[in-house]
Amino acid sequence: MKFKIAVVIVLSVISTLTTVGATPSSKDRPITHITLRTESDGDHRHFVGVGGTIDGKVNPDLFVKAWDVVEITLINNDGLKHHIGLPDFFITSHEVMEKGAKTVVTFVPFKSGGFTYNCILDNHKEMGMKGGLIIRNR
Ligand SMILES: [Cu+2]
Q: Which GO terms describe its molecular function (predicted)?
């Protein structure tokens, strides 16, 4: 029985990972929408929140609940090549190459705790392009 449950969990995690970029169709599960844009300033690179409580904040901490469906939209606002990575969840978005380009990652946080998001292209993480991803238990 326990083994069966573990298999179901592993399969649902795999299916979550393989649907990155797709739109979840579930009606009864809350979807947390988060939008970030990219910014460059001299040697600094960062994410800036768009809308809601993170609007205008640089590298905002993102607060979500475990097992919610989380959809993060990244908008290229500076014309440099970027992506968003969630290394603790094995997720990296497509790259956005041109100003105005968007990419979306959708995932289900399967563990709680303090994690990070970042852009590791062209040394951007070292130039400041990283923030906190805080996942609370339900
Ligand atoms: Cu970047």
A: metal ion binding
| pLDDT tens, position by position, 72-124 | 999 999 999 999 999 999 999 999 999 999 999 999 999 999 999 999 999 99
- pLDDT at res. 119: 98
Note down the domain range covering 77.
2-136
Average pLDDT, the chain: 87
Q: Strand (E) positions, the chain?
A: 31-41, 44-49, 62-65, 69-75, 85-86, 91-92, 102-107, 113-118, 130-136
This prediction's pTM:
0.80
Distance from Cα 61 to the centre of ligand 1, integer Å: 17
Give the CATH number of the domain where residue 23 resides: 2.60.40.420
| CA 33 – ligand 1 centroid, Å | 21
CA of 121 to the centre of ligand 1 (A): 5
Longest C-alpha distance within the chain, in Å? 57
How many angstroms does the Cα of residue 85 sit away from the middle of ligand 1? 10
